[in-house]
Amino acid sequence: MAAGSKDFTITIEEDPHYIQHDTSPPAKKGWLPDDALERASNFITDWTPFGLVASYYVFSTSLYIFCSDGLIAIFWFIYMTTNFYIAGATVLEAFMSITPCREARKIVTQAEEKGWNFPTPDDQLLILDLLIVAYLPNEKDIIMDRALYALEQIDYPRDKIRINILYNTPKPIEPLETELRQLTERFSHARVIKVPGSTSKADNLNYFFTLDTGSDLIAIYDCDHYPHPNGPRWAVERFMADTEIDIVQGRCIVFNSQDTFLTSMIAVEFDKIYAVSHPGRATMWGFGLFCGSNGYWRTSLLRELKMDGDMLTEDIDSALRAVSRGSKTVHDLNVTSYELAPTTFPAFWKQRLRWAQGWAQASARHLKMVYNKPQEPLHSDHGRSFTTRFGILSLLLIREMSYYLVTQYTCLVLSFVIVKFPTSGSALWKLVYFQYPVSQWLFIISIICLFATLWITNRVKSEFVSRRMIIQFSILYPAYLVLAATIGLYGHARQIVRYSSWNPTARK
Questions:
Q1: How many domains does the chain have?
Q2: What's the pTM?
Q3: Is residue 105 part of a domain?
């Protein structure tokens, strides 16, 4: 195919819509998987991070028990001050998100008044490859449902879009794989690709990037997502309106919030992240981020950057590499997609540990953006401003350091409880929050910032989040911060021992 061709033909033998290769793993050499030495090695690798984190908590708490009152006062002031900074930055991002939210609502109102006639005529729209990426043993129960939904419900001209089912599996799964192949017979805009030798999402994507499909844009979705029928159209309209946009990141909404208490809290968290923090950060610091799913890329950029299979969160790594090139990423709240949250704590724990370690990897690799110059910038007039550099510092360094600040504060409070055990609830309250006079103001201001952030979140909450859920989230927020910080420490510990197992999130 000639470069820049706008048809969907790819040079593949026989059926152009279905690609299948032998994915049988090579024969293993040396020690067998069930060998005692290998089992012992895996056990040590798995449990060493736990030992490191547990030792960290025990050592820190013990240290504070034996510290003098003067040193305790210094530590207390440092932790309360940094907590104030984090809370202040969070509420500033929240306030900055108000404008993007208003603009998104205004655009929807205008489209509704015009009978949902979008600005760009159908025949002038960009050609879109929409990828649904799946790991079949883990997502075999949902892939057909999501594929049919995308093929039938997405409102985009069929001659301008290709729905690509991109999957890998270590062993054949029938009759599911046959049913997937048959989709290409029922839908002219379907393509099913079984990726050869793939063991990860990165492998699946990188394989697809080698195919010349003639698309202008590529959208990436995890298999558990339901893209809003108009989501792709909203995203493409953003590209049509501004030719300098390189990436459009949409809003991800948890739709199974009623399943468990855990999913309800994750649903609130996602509303806070995708509707408040991300658009607020992009406005405040001058850069946005691709978040792994419900993201739209210019095809040329994504094929150039690809995905780094050595990174646990290859999506964040690619997003930061795009930032390093001076890409323009916008967060569009009208580009919505609905996804599943983990329903059990073990599944949540595995998912967040992978994210934490992946963020640690990506942060260490890309922190140099704080001081270096953009390499081969995409836009000649897009330098890296001081504001953007400080935003990157806040995202990659201060955020990672905050895990230690939160947990150190926790250990400090725990040492107080051990040494000066309170005899009443009021004594505990005073001990935890008002040990020193200056902390009263820092604490009160931090609480105001928290409530302001959650008030703004309540204003933009999704249809699956209730006010009761937000209130519960607010009450549990201190415990959530400690849990998130502990997971962050665990991710660092895993990175120290070079833990590299990829644990996909269970989907049912």
A1: 1
A2: 0.85
A3: yes
